[in-house]
Amino acid sequence: MSGSIGRADCAARDATDPLARVRDRFVIPEGVIYLDGNSLGALPVQTAARVVAAVEAEWGQGLISSWTDAGWMEAPLRVGAKIARLIGAEENEVVVAESTSVCLFKLVSAALTMQPGRSVLLTEEENFHTDLYIAAAAARQCGASIRVVPRQALRDALDGDVAVQLLTHVDYRTGFMHDLAELSAAAHDVGALAVWDLSHSAGAVPLSVTPDGADMATGCGYKYLNGGPGAPAFMYVRSALHTEMRNPLPGWLGHAEPFAFERGYRPAAGMASMLSGTPPILQLAALEAGVDLWNEVSMTAARRKSIALTDLFIALVEDRCADAGFSLASPRDPTRRGSQVSLRHLQGYGIVRALVDRGVIGDFRALDICRFGFAPLYLRYVDVWDAVDRLRAVMHSGAHRDSRFAERAAVT
Ligand SMILES: Cc1ncc(COP(=O)(O)O)c(C=O)c1O
């Protein structure tokens, strides 16, 4: 090995890491190096007890009175207010509701309806597929059309017809991070609303959505917020738009007085109006436990460590796997990168599967992306070293060419 970073150097960094002890707040299976927190965050230790309490005490004993006595009714706004602090919004600007896809539909539809006389929803080809499908459907329903352009053509495609610009802040494939403030301002310059998908940003990078000019946003609860599989997503709408926005799925829980059982719909004030049906209380309990971990950690410290971990991974791969045929798909500049590193390799699927066999869990995204997420709350510098060591062993042994990996599993 060239005069490079050794495992002992990494252990020394762990010894002085101010976030090192946060790892103890997570359940990490023995022998596993979990580099997939960008897909499904790890389980916080406190979550199981919170969910058991919600099941046994609140549901089991409190029964229906828990809607008021256990704060179930306020949970979507209460958890929303906690997420607001993490994404740099005002507490009254965020609510937790359904999946990201459904939240996106609601926001995009609401945004298009607020822009009479404009008929185009602008987005980029590189956007996550649910965003593209949902945006197209929402546009169709609102009598608008969708304009999908390559990333580098976004600026030129912003014109006076654009009602809404919908972008994912951190690219799920490569980790490329847009400049949220700059692109929101560009949308505003032509009179468009800026809607953001923050799925790979919330809990991963510092955000100031309100000061930076985002009009609306949504994001997953199960990635860096560690809310558990299928955790509900959040919706953010800047407060200046609250009186004008209309929920396209106006269910009874978004009504000003749900229990008045009025024949006609009257929206609640603010973000409560973006609710539709009964909130998923058990999943909200798990999400709240995950979000509460951030009470102990500053986003600035987490970002500092995330950059250090991703920089270290890139340096080690380029040093120790130099001849293995990888190319870096993520931006080298950490200010343009989320909390993941993606490597391109023609045999990427086999490589990811062979790594999983060796306890290093990342994932694969077609066509050729090996994707590794670095959640700074529970990863150590030695984990990065060990992961690259096992990657090197896979490449040297040819384990990734095993015939078992010729066929892709349903979830990659
Ligand atoms: C950018 C982005 N948006 C949305 C989603 C998924 O949304 P949903 O919670 O509806 O499955 C993902 C899932 O990985 C994603 O990466």
TrEMBL record:
<dbReference type="InterPro" id="IPR010111">
    <property type="entry name" value="Kynureninase"/>
</dbReference>
<dbReference type="GO" id="GO:0043420">
    <property type="term" value="P:anthranilate metabolic process"/>
</dbReference>
<dbReference type="Pfam" id="PF22580">
    <property type="entry name" value="KYNU_C"/>
</dbReference>
<dbReference type="GO" id="GO:0019441">
    <property type="term" value="P:L-tryptophan catabolic process to kynurenine"/>
</dbReference>
<comment type="pathway">
    <text>Cofactor biosynthesis; NAD(+) biosynthesis; quinolinate from L-kynurenine: step 2/3.</text>
</comment>
<dbReference type="GO" id="GO:0030170">
    <property type="term" value="F:pyridoxal phosphate binding"/>
</dbReference>
<dbReference type="InterPro" id="IPR015422">
    <property type="entry name" value="PyrdxlP-dep_Trfase_small"/>
</dbReference>
<comment type="pathway">
    <text>Amino-acid degradation; L-kynurenine degradation; L-alanine and anthranilate from L-kynurenine: step 1/1.</text>
</comment>
<comment type="similarity">
    <text>Belongs to the kynureninase family.</text>
</comment>
<dbReference type="GO" id="GO:0009435">
    <property type="term" value="P:NAD+ biosynthetic process"/>
</dbReference>
<dbReference type="InterPro" id="IPR015421">
    <property type="entry name" value="PyrdxlP-dep_Trfase_major"/>
</dbReference>
<dbReference type="GO" id="GO:0030429">
    <property type="term" value="F:kynureninase activity"/>
</dbReference>
<protein>
    <recommendedName>
        <fullName>Kynureninase</fullName>
        <ecNumber>3.7.1.3</ecNumber>
    </recommendedName>
</protein>
<keyword id="KW-0378">Hydrolase</keyword>
<dbReference type="GO" id="GO:0005737">
    <property type="term" value="C:cytoplasm"/>
</dbReference>
<comment type="function">
    <text>Catalyzes the cleavage of L-kynurenine (L-Kyn) and L-3-hydroxykynurenine (L-3OHKyn) into anthranilic acid (AA) and 3-hydroxyanthranilic acid (3-OHAA), respectively.</text>
</comment>
<keyword id="KW-0663">Pyridoxal phosphate</keyword>
<comment type="subunit">
    <text>Homodimer.</text>
</comment>
<dbReference type="InterPro" id="IPR015424">
    <property type="entry name" value="PyrdxlP-dep_Trfase"/>
</dbReference>
<keyword id="KW-0662">Pyridine nucleotide biosynthesis</keyword>
